[in-house]
Predict the structure.
Amino acid sequence: MKRQHDPLRLDVAAFAADGGALAGQWPGDSLVRLAESQSPPQDVPLGEVRWQVQGERRAVAGGEAELWLALSADTRVWLSCQRCLQPFEVPLALARRIRFVRGEAQAEALDAEIDDDVLALSRSIDLRELVEDELLLALPLVPRHSQCPMPLPMAADAASADDAPAERANPFAVLQSLKTDRGAS
């Protein structure tokens, strides 16, 4: 018989041993830290977060079974373009495999050895918090449009500089003329 699992507080060991699977969606504003990192236009709701988690217990010859969670989530987030400073919508999707081990020291050692994420096993984990953490880590470091919808102010300044005369007056020309006049006296 399969055990019932609370989709917010997850007993990872039992969930993985059962090969449990959960899926759902949350309103975008229910993930507070993710919501606070966004800058949507006024009166535009935040995108829903769709997620799935699958537990797996792998038998290992001569050792303790490995506990894994496969986590995927996707949403659309509103970020500010770092070039034009205008809000724009970015699709955000992730797929992570997380291995759970006994203790922080083992997690730290394995994290350096394998590509998958490694976490120390705790009695239970907050699934909503885990999904939110992973989405925050998936945000682009420098969000920007591939091409900004409006010309940038600096681009307009550069265009007007191109229209300016090629030769500018030397600011030291006046000093040079004073020096020359002094030498003539």
The longest strand covers residues 66-80. The chain has one domain: 9-147. The radius of gyration is 28 Å. Strands lie at 9-10, 21-26, 49-58, 66-80, 87-101, 117-120, 125-126.
